[in-house]
Write a structure and sequence with these properties.
Elements: H1 2-28, E1 39-41, E2 48-50, E3 57-59, E4 66-69, E5 72-78, E6 86-87, E7 90-91, E8 99-106, E9 109-116, E10 123-130, E11 136-142, E12 148-154, E13 170-173, E14 185-191, E15 195-200, E16 203-209, E17 214-215, E18 218-219, E19 226-234, H2 239-244, E20 257-268
Parallel strand pairs: 2-3
Antiparallel strand pairs: 1-20, 3-8, 4-5, 5-20, 6-7, 8-19, 9-14, 9-20, 10-11, 10-19, 11-12, 12-13, 14-15, 15-16, 17-18
The structure holds 2-acetamido-2-deoxy-beta-D-glucopyranose (2 copies).
Amino acid sequence: MYIFLIQTLLILSLSVYQVGAAYIYRRQSPDLGSQCRPFYTTFPPTSVSRNTYSAPFVAISPAGSYQTTPGGLELYLNKPEGTIKTKQGANDKTSEGATVNSTFAIHYGKVTFEVSAPAIPGVVTAAILIADERDEIDVELLGGDPAHWQTNIFAPTRRDKEPLFGVFSSIERVPHPNPSIAKIHSYTIDWNKERIEWGIDGRTVRTLKKEESMKGGVLHYPSHPSRLQLGIWDASSPSGTSEWAKGPINWSDAPRSMKAVVRSVRVECPKY
Ligand SMILES: *[C@@H]1O[C@H](CO)[C@@H](O)[C@H](O)[C@H]1NC(C)=O
Ligand SMILES: *[C@@H]1O[C@H](CO)[C@@H](O)[C@H](O)[C@H]1NC(C)=O
């Protein structure tokens, strides 16, 4: 009797879960879960849409927060309305920058982003792979440290009490002849089952093997289908984030409107 009940409950919850998952897939991206298809864009007007999934990219942020231009996709961060007070290393208001998702996902592959980012302390420009399960493989450009760029991964497990912020992160140099994130550089994430390689301007600078993602006896290796996500954000709060981003943004000094430019995105597929 009990066993029967438990079985019934199990089957019920499983099918609800599956229906839920299928629904999410269809709503958010018909292609999520696909392996890898070669892709290249320089962001013509039809490449980004809002509220529909018919274009390769969908904007999560408001309509005016981004624009496709002949130079690429511009992502804006504007000064928040009203007076901004700074207390204990954080601003009391932050502004919502642009965020754009790809509507397709890759499950392993090599992604190259050509990006320039504002060199303003407290502003972060991010070109990442992100899964619905919250796995992330990141390239982060901190305006407060324009001579460097950061790489990181996240793959939350049930055992983690909080995200492992500093554990897998690393800081790399932006090479000559234009050693600043404010100039266009090409940043590469090359992801397969065994390892992740990050590169800049065609040179690999960091390799993270799957077994190196072990923490607390559990692997934290990104392994779920992931979308590409491009964004610019105001890291002026909370104070821990702001400290990491060398913020908060000093709005009496910073331009009222800043932009990151994504000139192109390329996806190459692994050959198995
Ligand atoms: C963007 O991607 C994230 C991570 O997979 C997902 O949680 C979010 O729902 C996506 N948003 C849209 C509008 O596609
Ligand atoms: C913010 O910028 C203004 C103008 O340059 C400057 O006077 C002020 O000291 C800066 N504030 C901080 C906290 O650095």
